[in-house]
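We modelled the chain as a single entity of 240 amino acids. Its sequence is:
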Amino acid sequence: MAYPHTIFGWFLELLFPYRCLSCRRYLDREYICRPCFNRLPIKGQGECVGCSRPSPDGMTCILCKDGYQLDQLMVVSDFNDPAVAMLIRRMKYGFIRDLVEPLHRLSRKYLLYRAKKGRSFIQDNPLLVPVPLHIVREQWRGFNQAALLGESIAGTYQLELVHALECTRHKTHQAEILERNRRIENVRGLYQCIDPNLIRGRKVMLIDDVCTTGATLNECAAVLKASGACSVSALVIARG
């Protein structure tokens, strides 16, 4: 017997059928077709979180080392690609949590590329920590996209994930702030470690969807290192 929510789902699909967000082709319960997905770019060149200049394997360069606690930034794809930007925006602001799945597949494509280059990220058995949302914003969106991405990556690579950080206040959304210094001030003191025992002595990898100035990732890294993490890297889908 069909349950009411199942019937409602069928009704929605009849009114609003699935279409590829890129080419608009009609699909069967997917948001991006295979040809369009295969055209999504992956980043071959690492870059410093601070100055955005090319950097070996995304390590924070010596010029930015004093100002950034994040040791390494891995960027999966390019936010300047319209399809990548569309997937991320529709997930976050269209409240489509199912779009985590193609973004997770894109991250696997990137991580496979790194592994073939001899830069496998799992060799250090990192502890995955998603960047948290404030409870108000998470309830408004219905999910934390960083947590969903982290759970997918953890499941694929059999890595441990812990929600070690919490957001302590409801702030102005970073996307609404253009100036770098204001972004840094906006996240200062925003996060705290729930339990230092979770991360003490571990190599931590932060998970988030987008990095812009790196202010959020840097603030999270500072809190994690102050709580005992021995190193902190980050994996993001794109850099805006």
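As a brief sanity check on the tokenised model: The beta strands are 72-78, 127-130, 165-167, 191-193, 203-211, 231-239. Confidence is low (pLDDT under 50) at residues 1-12.
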